Amino acid sequence: MPRHGRLVFPMLCAALCGALLVQLRPLTGEARAAVTRQADADHTIAVCAVPSLLNEMLESERFRPERDRLEQELNDKLQELRDRRDELIEDMEGVDPSEPEGREAAMEIETLGRRYQQLQMEAQGRADALFARQMTEAWNLIRSSAEAVAEDLGYDYVVTTAGRDEQLNQESSATALRQMLARPMIVFPEDADITDDVREDLNL
């Protein structure tokens, strides 16, 4: 895909050149900006909507089925405990809780409750660990693809940023702030966006 728009990356050498020129003669704001642009012209930046690609990849057939299988496995184990608890509660109907049989059933129900809470925590931990591993793997794939695409298209830098057309959440201030911080690039040429190229490379 032909690319014409280029983003200029500030460099230390441009600042040094500007300082030397100031010592020779005063520069206007426009002249100083022109010097900086000229010094930086060979270093170009692309942008890539990595957050969007990450979500797409995590919902793809490469990652989603494994999470679904784990979720089903954990839910089945929790359901077994719920079913056993319900059976005991039903069996206790009409039973004197002060009798040995009633006390034994009550103790088992209490034990099942503790086991259920423990299993819930273990299930959450396993689910979080799997998701973290998948996120890391997906990120590494996206990064490698972005590096390859940028090299093919002649970009020196790739900045990760959310898509500028994506709507901000208007119900949660914390979510909205995270979305804002995920947009370090506010203005950039449309053809500096390599998101579609990376998406195609990843077969998403």
Q: In a few lines, what is going on in this structure?
A:
The chain is mainly α and 204 residues long. It has helices at residues 12-24, 29-40, 50-58, 64-91, 100-153, 173-181, 195-201; strands spanning 7-8, 44-48, 157-160.
What this model shows, in words?
The chain is mainly alpha-helical and about 200 residues long. It folds into 2 domains: about 1-40, no CATH class; about 45-200, no CATH class. Helix content is about 65%, strand content about 5%. It contains 7 helices and 3 strands. A 3-stranded mixed β-sheet has the order 1-2-3, covered by helices on one side. Helix 4 (about 65-90) packs antiparallel against helix 5 (about 100-155) and helix 5 packs across helix 7 (about 195-200). The chain starts with 6 loop residues before the first strand and ends with a helix. Mean pLDDT is about 80; it is low at about 5-25 and about 30-40.
Task: Supply Rg.
Answer: 29 Å
In spatial order, strands of the major sheet run 1-2-3
Q: How many E-type strands? A: 3
Distance between the termini: 18 Å
> What is the overall shape?
elongated
Beta-strand percentage?
5-15%
Low-confidence stretches: 4-27, 31-40
Q: Secondary-structure element sequence? A: EHHEHHHEHH
- Going by helix content, strand content and strand pairing, the class is mainly alpha
Measured as a percent range, the helix fraction is: 55-70%
Main sheet summary: 3 strands, mixed
Q: Number of helical runs?
A: 7
Count of structural domains: 2
- Arithmetic mean of pLDDT: 80
